[in-house]
Amino acid sequence: MDHTEPEPRGKPDPSRWAAKAWALLSAVRSQSPLVQCITNFVSMDLMANTLLSAGASPAMLHSVEEIPEFTPHVHALCINIGTLSSDWVPAMKAAADLACKSGRPWVLDPVAAGASGFRLKTCLELVELKPTVIRGNGSEITALSKASLASCKGVDSSHKSTDAVEAAKSLAQASGSIVAVSGAVDIITDGELVVGAHNGVAMMQRITATGCSVTALIAAFVAVDPLHAFEATALALSIFGIAAEIGMKMANGPASLRMHLIDSLHGLDEADVLSRVNITSFS
């Protein structure tokens, strides 16, 4: 894994995004980071296949009994609360705590965070365990930021990503996490800097678990470059979006896009990445 010194803070150089994207994807492919996913039943298949197609190694392990032995050895942890139940909360908390103590990055996907008091309470308790990155849609990030029960419409977003910029910045400042808001433009912030990743296609909204899967990909990217989590998060979102753009050219609808998305992520080459990465500064 990359343990180089972090670069000085400041606005990232747009000319370096594409080269960095290819470098990180190549690192994922060569290092095959082990990413533990404690996730929902709906998303397990696509998340695992996304990680495998990108070159990472998924471990869909959620038993609290196994976490003390297993989690300290992973390269990154991804926690997704989609099909949340009280039985899984202790495992989520134990894994997040161990990831922090072991110096491993971990990523939180607060699915439908504001849909119930139970979900919101669980999310807030997990945020206290210092996730490296929090990725959600506009409604989820707004709900977490405001700690409100009225901000989320199920797993779908009733807020545009650009509408949630201030909420994302506030959450990043309060939590110390990088915050990413998925949408037509994916917004990424550390509380001060804000960038937008403009890759992707609208049809992705018709495929369940694409958001969950890009969260797992973020975990893999942060695993190979933990000292630059802001950049790694933005680039994972861009790479996933590029795979969707290429896959859409061959797709007839959501089902075939799902297949071609995985194939395209697996087959991305340097020319695809260098010519398609589209990340701009918002701050």
How is this structure best described in words?
Thiazole kinase involved in thiamine salvage pathway. It comes from Morella rubra. It catalyses: 5-(2-hydroxyethyl)-4-methylthiazole + ATP = 4-methyl-5-(2-phosphooxyethyl)-thiazole + ADP + H(+). One of its GO terms (molecular function) is magnesium ion binding. The protein is of the alpha/beta class and 283 residues long. It has one domain (14-281): Ribokinase (UDP-N-acetylmuramoyl-L-alanine:D-glutamate ligase, 3-Layer(aba) Sandwich). It is 47% helix and 13% strand. The protein is built from 11 helices and 9 strands. The chain has a 9-stranded mixed sheet with strand order 2-1-3-4-5-6-7-8-9, with helices on both faces. α1 (14-31) runs antiparallel to α11 (270-276), α6 packs across α7 (165-175) and α9 packs across α10. Residues 2-9 and 148-159 have low confidence and may be disordered.
Question: Can you give me a brief rundown of this structure?
Answer:
The protein is an alpha/beta fold and 283 residues long. The chain contains 11 helices and 9 strands.
What is the structural class? alpha/beta
* Low-pLDDT regions: 2-9, 148-159
Q: For the record, what CATH class applies?
A: Alpha Beta
CATH homology group: Ribokinase
Number of domains: 1
What general form does the structure show? globular
What fold name stands as the CATH topology? UDP-N-acetylmuramoyl-L-alanine:D-glutamate ligase
Q: What is the string of helix and strand elements?
A: HEHEHEHEHEHHEEEHHHHE
Please name the CATH architecture. Answer: 3-Layer(aba) Sandwich
Enzyme class: transferase
EC number: 2.7.1.50
InterPro entries: Hyethyz_kinase (IPR000417), Ribokinase-like (IPR029056)
Family: Belongs to the Thz kinase family.
